[in-house]
Design goal:
The complex is a heterodimer of chains A (457) and B (195).
Chain A (H helix, E strand, L loop, with lengths): L1 E5 L13 H4 L4 E3 L1 H4 L1 H10 L6 E5 L8 E7 L2 E7 L5 E5 L14 E3 L2 E3 L6 E3 L4 E3 L22 E5 L2 E5 L7 H5 L3 H9 L7 E10 L3 H7 L6 H4 L1 H7 L23 E6 L2 E5 L10 H4 L7 H12 L3 H6 L6 E5 L3 E4 L2 E9 L2 E10 L11 H33 L7 E3 L11 E2 L5 E3 L5 H15 L5 E5 L1
Antiparallel strand pairs in A: 1-23, 2-20, 3-12, 4-5, 4-7, 5-6, 8-9, 9-10, 11-12, 13-19, 14-15, 14-22, 15-16, 16-17, 17-18, 18-19, 21-22
Chain B lengths: L15 H10 L9 E2 L2 H19 L3 H6 L1 E9 L15 E3 L1 H12 L11 E13 L5 E14 L2 E16 L2 E11 L6 E2 L6
Parallel strand pairs in B: 2-7
Antiparallel strand pairs in B: 1-4, 2-3, 4-5, 5-6, 6-7
The chains are: A alpha+beta (457), B alpha+beta (195).
The structure holds FE2/S2 (inorganic) cluster (FES) and fe (ii) ion.
Chain lengths: 457, 195
């Protein structure tokens, strides 16, 4: 059984920090939202505590007692599957004097023993024993000695989220319209499943929102990624590899961006790709083993080879779930703030499973190829974006030049469309999603959420 | 032996058998019973690895690539034990064509992560040579420390390399270079140089 205990009165008075309407306007935002440590501090409560935040993937903790360590904003978290199979997100903090209980990044443990004075806790969070209890007058059955945990943990098709906000909507309502693209992203894989398999782990010296601003930005592609586009097309007969469809006049292409609410948005580039088996593989840039595996699959699987090869192709979507999850290509990308001007960006790779027996002994081979195609973008694309994010952060040190514009597509009649459900659709290079999500951010920053933790009783 | 197809243009050699052989070859090779203590031999490989470090510091990528066998791998694992690159993402796992891609990109003038280019200086040490199952191959372990200057300061990357050398027509070529950063499983800022 769980008892809710309010954390009370630790919340910074973020609602009163600034005139948020001045900082976030219709067409522009103030530099302070990227540079001010006080705003970052307030975000730890109003964003990272108050909305559903992505914590990890089912496949990282497949068995009972498996755990990984992660963070919720800056709060160190142990995400685990307890001895009964229940997924929990424990604060990685001893209830005695505050030390972290677990220092490893992953493992399997039914209990955590504090290295400092030896208090031990079951992976339900419950205090198990303290050394020399006769030195204490208190009752250790009191729930306050059990490890604090995230009161609401829920998952959607393997993606595990948590929030400290009892007033947040149910996860499914929070995700809303973005579940459609998530379903399609999963369902192209056998059994609708993927397994996380290590990551390209990057970091940049810049505010976390620079990454979220970029997550659906179709305007930067041919400029920021010019070296990648030139590289991946250098040997091609037809320069159609990767995101080449952004060249020329991208806004007249069939791709589009859609804002689905609650800060989430979706860039759908699939309409640019020939809709046929093998269509995705045809525009995949060269990867180690490409020609060998293609020949091998065609020899062994005949007409089915195209479907198999498409599993190694990068799915041309960006599915961005506010504030920290982005599904793109075959990656699960996670944004993780470290400070107002430092952010981790982790590109978790995914492999497929042979859910229906169609891949058979080709499973390792298709995954080997899929690993190599996934390594391309972080190595040759993302590094250039991160360099540009860092340079934005440097540029924003110009105190007197206050404004950052995100008004592309604004005010052009008929260009940005809002449907009956309130979803907003715009051409691929528009900044409409930025304006939408940052207004949601503003709404959250104005709010006064009361966050709580839970403890076992 | 010259490959049938040009590995700069197409990739036919990265096969399931290739991966299996690679993983086996990079498991359990740093053993005292395989150590070659002959000073001349050790000096030969130390010289080759030091030359490679100099060419990378000088951004002399053509000469650097020429040190490699036609069918080669530049491998930067994302886990300290190397992992299984068929089932796990590596930081980098480049065949020859992708190594050439990497260099091509750096030369486009639009690789913003390397504009301006990093200045590096590499220290190589603790070189040890080990036997390989084939008589014409050697495994070499070396430690490295790379000082990298970018406009906001100098940082250090450190780790160790496992080189697999192969002798071809009287010349020792690099067939595989596994670069093991000590913090390879941590989030790294701008890993855009050839490490
Ligand atoms: S801080 Fe954990 S037992 Fe003292
Ligand atoms: Fe980008």
């Amino acid at each position: 059984m769980l008892e809710k205990i309010s954390t009370s009165s630790i919340r910074p008075a973020s609602a009163d920090l600034y005139d948020w309407d001045e900082l976030v306007q219709e067409d522009r935002v103030h530099r302070l939202i990227y540079t001010d440590p006080a705003i970052f501090e307030a975000e730890l409560t109003n964003i990272w505590g108050a909305v559903w935040v992505y914590l990890g993937h089912d496949s990282q903790i497949p068995n009972n007692n498996d755990y990984v360590t992660t963070r919720l904003g800056l709060r160190p978290i142990i995400l685990l599957r307890d001895s009964q199979g229940k997924i929990r997100a424990l604060f990685n903090r001893c209830t005695h004097r505050g030390t972290t209980l677990c220092r490893l990044e992953r493992g399997n443990a039914f209990q955590f023993v504090c290295p400092y004075h030896g208090w031990s806790f079951l992976n339900t969070g419950k205090l198990r024993a303290v050394p020399w209890p006769d030195g204490y007058a208190c009752d250790f059955k009191d729930a306050k000695f059990n490890v604090a945990q995230v009161p609401r943990v829920d998952s959607y098709r393997g993606f595990i989220f948590g929030t400290l906000n009892p007033d947040a909507p149910p996860l499914l309502d929070y995700l809303g319209g973005i579940t459609g693209p998530i379903d399609e992203w999963l369902d192209r894989n056998p059994g609708g499943k993927v397994v996380v398999c290590e990551a390209n782990r990057l970091k940049y010296k810049g505010n976390w929102k620079l990454a979220y601003d970029n997550s659906g930005d179709g305007y930067h592609v041919v400029f920021s990624h010019r070296s990648l586009l030139e590289m991946e097309n250098r040997l091609a007969d037809e320069a159609n590899k990767g995101m080449s469809y952004y060249k020329g006049s991208p806004d007249s292409k069939a791709m589009y961006m859609r804002y689905t609410g609650n800060g989430h948005h979706f860039k759908d580039k699939r309409p640019n790709i020939e809709k046929r088996a093998g269509g995705l593989w045809a525009v995949e840039g060269p990867a180690p083993g490409s020609e060998h595996y293609e020949a091998e699959f065609r020899r062994r699987f005949g007409a089915k080879a195209d479907d198999i090869l498409d599993l190694a192709g990068s799915e041309p979507v960006n599915i961005n779930v506010f504030p920290n999850l982005s599904l793109l290509g075959n990656h699960i990308q996670v944004f993780d703030p470290i400070s107002v001007d430092e952010t981790n960006v982790t590109w978790f790779g995914t492999r497929v499973v042979d859910a229906d027996g169609t891949l058979g002994d080709a499973l390792d081979e298709i995954n080997a190829l899929r690993m190599r195609t996934q390594e391309q973008f972080p190595n040759f694309g993302e590094v250039d974006d991160l360099a540009n994010f860092e340079e934005i952060q440097r540029g924003l040190a110009c105190l007197e030049d206050e404004w950052v514009y995100m008004h592309r597509g604004l005010g052009i009649p008929g260009r940005v469309k809002t449907d009956a459900k309130g979803e907003v659709t715009a051409p691929a290079t528009d900044e409409a999603f930025m304006r939408e999500y940052i207004h949601e951010w503003k709404r959250l920053m104005k709010a006064s959420p009361s966050l709580v933790v839970q403890r076992e009783v | 032996m010259q490959p049938a197809r040009d590995p700069s243009l197409t990739s036919y050699y990265v096969t399931d058998a290739f991966y299996r052989e690679l993983i086996a070859s990079f498991a359990d090779w740093q053993r005292d019973d395989r150590l070659i203590t002959d000073a001349a031999e050790r000096d030969r490989f130390r010289g080759l690895i030091e030359r490679e470090a100099r060419l990378l510091d000088q951004l002399d990528f053509d000469r650097w690539l020429a040190m490699y066998a036609p069918e080669c791998i530049y491998w930067v694992p994302g886990t300290p034990d190397g992992g299984d690159p068929r089932r796990e993402i590596a930081m980098s796992f480049d065949d020859r064509r992708r190594m050439e891609d990497r260099i091509y990109r750096l030369r486009t003038g639009y690789a913003w992560s390397q504009a301006p280019k990093s200045r590096t200086v590499r220290m190589i040490g603790n070189v040890e040579v080990f036997e390989e199952a084939s008589a014409n191959k050697r495994m070499v372990r070396s430690n490295f420390l790379i000082g990298e200057f970018r406009p906001d300061g100098v940082r250090f990357l450190s780790g160790w390399c496992g080189h697999r050398f192969v002798e071809r027509d009287g010349r020792w070529e690099i067939e595989v270079r596994q670069v093991n950063l000590i913090d390879c499983d941590q989030n790294l800022r701008n890993p855009s140089i050839v490490i």
